[in-house]
Amino acid sequence: MGDLNQLPSGPRRAAVSPSAGDLSDDETLTRLVAHIYDAALDSALWIDVLPRMGVFVGGQAGGILSKDTVSKAGTAHYSFGVDPHYVQLYDQTHSRCDPVSTLPFFDVEQIVSIPELVRYDEFLRERFFQEWMRPQGLVDAANSVLEKSASSCSFLTILRSEASGIVDDEMERRMALIVPHVRRAVLIGRAIELKETEAATFADMLDALSAGLFLTAADGRIVHANAAGHGMLDARDILRSVRGRLATSDRHVDKILHETFAAAADHGDAGIGIKGIALPLMAHDGERYVAHVLPLTSGARRRAGKAYAATAAVFVCRAAMEGPSAPEVIGKTYSLTPTELRVLLAIVDVGGIPEVATALGVADSTIKTHVGRLFEKTGVGRQADLVKLIAGFANPFQD
Description:
The strands form three sheets. The protein has a five-stranded antiparallel sheet with strand order 2-1-5-4-3, with helices on both faces. The protein has 17 helices and twelve strands.
């Protein structure tokens, strides 16, 4: 491995990721998307899908992770290319000092590299790089938020090695092609919540779901519905059966839904496209629901589709209440950079300037500079006032 001290102090973008192949190879992307959606039904497949994603985008390691926006603790749910020892280190200690603490500050599906989260020359001196990334020969990561709420954030990260260099434009373009599909698969997987139980038949598994589940033909005809789905149809609120076809109370959503059914039948995963992650539904009492459509004409899902003469599965569940986290609101209110927001959060979580500098692995003078900018932007003059500022933005509805 080369001398990582010779890495540039600022972003260096390679021309093209040599391991990624030809971007015009639509067949490769189509196969990858099929594998991603198979993982929506069987989460164990992520272990195989993630390395394929790494090859496609030009990354050597990564995973699907979640982070508590309050405690800063993170968990790697699925990973590849990272030694189990370092996965354990991340979960136990290093997730609290990694640069993705401010990732929720960015939009869902936005591709964000480490130099966009923190000054890269500072990052190279920080504890997370020195103790976690450098020993593994890693220098950057392309990250994207899959889902976020006021208290947590789930995200995809693909890490780059020293040989590949800093995240380049080619990697960002390729990440943008797969991230919407990964997000949809993760949301569908959450709706299914198979956990560790094994059903005797596919129908038994469907009936065990708390989400409404409908298997449909290309014309929207309902060929199977689980118990929760029948309950929704009987209520005739957000969904109903019209001459045996699945219909919604919203004409615009209904039109999109049936166009999606036809596209799934004709083109499988490719027909769904990268848009329309979720279709919004609203009950008469104002309760919000979301419908996810999963093609059953591609990948391993074809077996389930053939068994029921179905071309698509529709999962309908209550929409999770999502909203900006307190740090996100603070950052936007005072126009803080991701680095400034990260230092502000560290002051609240860790303590004074020496403690924050030690935790992040940088000089006291660096933290003092950022604190000075925080004072200017927020209009306060003491670190104690910064803590009070954070407390003032806390969610009053939290226990």
